[in-house]
Design brief:
With 373 residues, the chain is α/β, with parallel strands linked by helices. It has helices spanning 2-18, 26-29, 53-56, 62-70, 82-89, 96-111, 124-128, 133-150, 171-188, 204-209, 228-231, 254-261, 267-278, 283-300, 318-334, 362-367; strands at residues 34-42, 75-80, 115-120, 158-161, 194-197, 218-224, 304-309, 338-341, 351-354, 357-360. It has one domain: Alpha-Beta Barrel (TIM Barrel), CATH 3.20.20. β9 and β10 (357-360) form a beta hairpin. Bound molecules: beta-D-glucopyranose (BGC). The site of beta-D-glucopyranose has 5 residues, from loops.
Length: 373
């Protein structure tokens, strides 16, 4: 009798562990296979026009959206800086004009047959304020307003991404904050799928720290720029020493890394470069890394996407960049992970824009497994 009971308890316990936690409809995940990031439109605006009507109405055009669609992308990730929206909401029209610009952008995307990830993408100082509980409440309130506004929009093709790269160094705190924000969105948008991330930089190790949230209608996200020393060589943001790293090839070799290290002023930074060479980064090393994220999702029975990956195009050798994009994209697809490359026309982009006209870079399009229209 005791044995039978023990077996039953054991069976129940193992069922509890393997029961699916997610109820994201497959039809929705099918819209998120091949995406591109629309940057510098509603967030990180470097255009001298700033966050203005003129900028919003001209930065990304219907021709851009048509080009994205015709190249075979099925969705875009639209970065939105919450701060100017919050400011606009303090105005007399309670943000109606600002929402109008965002609505027009979202409508243009959806009308072209694409899906859209509405990605909350603030600057670092905004994210730092999330260490204050009262600011978390304000941000939750803001998300409630945004989610309520879009709650009548097609839940099959509109997705809410809570926060890009939270930059929160305490992952336990982020877990609590993310739970609060998910609840706020869910209160007003019962049908929409939410995209949730790990703390800090959305790296794969940030994500695998996470315990899945209680909400079943959630997709989990990570970003993939590994190894940063290659993808962000010459970059003037992020780690300071990246600006000294030039001519680092992919796949990596000790000989090339030693040569590049010679041009890096500080000894610890030289060591990072030498390590990159010794670590033999190639397709199988990348796949081993992505497999860790895929494995976390499999074990937790949750869907997973990677909505940023790419190489700074003014840093790496163009052919190495293409090899890296091909290897990452192929690995993501092998693990059935929907992806979105960073970005459309920015410094990691798939097009070059001149006088408002976009030209697709054929090698990047092919590295993404897509074909030229
Ligand atoms: C940041 C961008 C940056 C990109 C690659 C994004 O998450 O918002 O500013 O260019 O990552 O580093």
């Amino acid at each position: 009798m005791f044995r039978v009971l023990a077996i039953l308890i054991f069976a129940a316990a193992s069922f509890a562990q393997t029961a699916p936690l997610t109820y994201v409809p497959a039809s929705r995940l099918a819209h998120l296979r091949h995406g591109i990031n629309l940057s510098e439109w509603f967030a990180q605006v470097y255009d001298p026009k700033g966050y203005t009507k003129e900028h919003f109405e001209t930065w990304t055009t219907p021709q851009d959206i048509a080009l994205i669609k015709s190249a075979g992308f099925d969705h875009v990730r639209l970065s939105v800086n919450p701060q100017p929206m919050m400011d606009a909401m303090q105005g007399q029209d309670h943000g109606a004009e600002y929402f109008g610009y965002l609505d027009a952008a979202m409508k243009m995307i959806l009308d072209a047959g694409l899906a859209v990830q509405l990605d909350m993408h603030p600057d670092s100082d905004f994210k730092a304020r999330l260490n204050d509980d009262e600011f978390v409440e304000r941000f939750a309130d803001f998300w409630r307003m945004v989610a309520r506004h879009y709650s009548s929009w097609d839940p099959e093709r509109v997705f809410f991404e809570i926060l890009n790269e939270p930059e929160m160094h305490d992952p336990y705190r982020w877990y609590g904050v993310e739970t609060k924000l998910t609840t706020a969105i869910r209160q007003v948008a019962p049908a929409h799928t939410i995209i949730a991330s790990g703390a800090n930089w959305d790296d794969d190790d940030d994500m695998i720290f996470l315990e899945p949230l209680r909400d079943p209608n959630v997709i989990y996200v990570f970003h993939f720029y590994e190894p940063h020393i290659f993808t962000h060589q010459s970059a003037t943001w992020g780690e300071y020493y990246w600006r000294w790293v030039k001519g680092l090839h992919y796949p990596s070799s000790p000989e090339n890394a030693a040569q590049v290290a010679a041009g890096v002023p500080e000894a610890p930074d030289r060591l990072y470069v030498i390590r990159y060479g010794q670590d033999h980064w190639d397709a199988s090393r990348i796949d081993a890394e992505i497999n860790q994220a895929a494995d976390w999702a499999r074990r937790n029975h949750v869907p997973l996407i990677c909505n940023e990956f790419g190489v700074f195009r003014y840093g790496a050798d163009p052919q190495d960049r293409i090899r890296w994009i091909t290897d990452v994209r192929t690995s993501l697809e092998r693990h059935n992970i929907g992806w979105a490359m960073w970005d459309y026309s920015g410094s990691f982009g798939v097009v070059t824009k001149q006088n408002g006209k976009a030209t697709l870079d054929e090698a990047t399009v092919r590295a993404l497994g897509l074909s030229m229209p």
